[in-house]
Design goal:
Blueprint lengths: L9 E5 L7 H17 L2 E8 L2 H5 L11 H10 L4 E6 L2 H4 L3 H12 L2 E7 L12 H11 L2 E5 L1 H5 L5 H9 L3 H8 L4 E7 L4 H4 L5 E4 L11 E9 L2 E10 L10 E6 L10 E11 L7 H23 L1
Parallel strand pairs: 1-2, 1-4, 2-3, 4-5
Antiparallel strand pairs: 6-7, 6-11, 7-10, 8-9, 8-11, 9-10
Helix pairs in contact: 8-9
Length: 305
């Protein structure tokens, strides 16, 4: 943003928004539409780390987006101001009144809150939508309630998407998300084994260990590199045929041979081809990779028809 919009009046919605999926997008559309009609700044209050990581010390939960990816998606869907609150135990212990007055009103200058009928907030999540309506009257802001009917029409949840990706069902996850699931990482040097079998790969390093990496296997992917759209096939796994090693993410790009080590890249996942296997020989692996490439290129060509 070119100017600081922090002090401007806002339409605000609140939530973790992991995935920014089609259900979230419906809420964001309501926020942007309301903001336009009332001349307010469309805004989101979101939290990081995930509350489960803090309150339950649950380090097993993997998120659909890194915090930078979440920002990107929220902006893409029309949100001008994104306030990321660091979620701590102290924050969780804020009383409902302090949370509403100090953060929503005084800090964020909220004029309209767009929120689900089942929203809970404050210490121990003890306050509900009715409490928020009482605060709204006292502190002079409006509530735009998302009804049970509206919420029930969207059967998507971040949990369902995580399960689909854990199962390797990228196509289903993409349907729920309304966009292609993507990984953001840096291209780093690997062992260059792929080059010796005519399938050179770019190794993708993802810094954020909480980012959900889908099930091991071979996928069709695309990326934009130096302004050019490039397709490829990606392997997630330990490469058991050549050398069992720690889990890695490697992409073989089609018709692209530039040196791009050190580049940040966004890999969009399109569909899954197969599980990762241990083959009886390097030749058997090469034969399968050739078949994978044919199948992947057929898929890409069908997209462009």
């Amino acid at each position: 943003m070119s100017i600081n919009k922090g002090h401007f009046a806002k339409t605000l919605t609140i939530g973790t928004f992991d995935g920014v999926h089609i259900g979230h997008q419906k809420i964001l559309k309501k926020v942007t539409k309301l903001s336009k009609s009332k001349n307010l700044i469309p805004s989101v209050l979101t939290f990081f780390p995930h509350p489960r990581m803090v309150l339950h010390q649950d380090n097993t939960i993997k998120l659909l987006n890194t915090i930078s990816e979440r920002r990107y998606l929220l902006e893409k869907f029309g949100i001008d101001l994104i306030c990321v609150k660091t979620f701590t135990k102290e924050f969780a212990n804020l009383s409902a009144e302090d949370y509403v007055k100090n953060i929503l009103v005084d800090e964020l200058n909220t004029k309209v809150v767009v929120i689900g009928y089942d929203h809970h907030f404050g210490k121990n999540r003890s306050a509900n939508i009715n409490d928020l309506k009482k605060f709204a009257k006292i502190l002079d802001f409006e509530i735009e309630e998302i009804s049970a009917e509206d919420i029930s029409q969207v059967t998507v949840s971040s949990t369902k998407i995580r399960k689909a990706l854990h199962d390797g069902n990228v196509s289903l996850a993409n349907t729920y998300l309304g966009y292609n699931y993507f990984l953001t990482g840096k291209i780093v040097r690997g062992h260059s084994i792929g080059r010796t079998i005519d399938f050179p790969t770019a190794n993708i390093y993802i810094e954020e260990d909480y980012k959900l990496i889908p099930k091991d296997g071979v996928y069709v992917v695309k990326a934009k590199i130096e302004g050019k759209q490039v397709f490829g096939m990606m392997n997630i796994g330990s490469n058991p045929t050549i050398k069992n090693k720690p889990r890695s993410i490697e992409v073989h790009f089609f018709d692209f041979e530039k040196n791009i080590y050190g580049h940040q890249v966004v890999i969009e996942m399109l569909t899954r081809l197969r599980d990762e296997h241990k083959f009886e020989s390097i030749e058997a692996l090469k034969s399968q990779l050739k078949q994978d490439r044919i199948e992947a290129l057929n898929y890409v060509n069908a997209l462009n028809d």
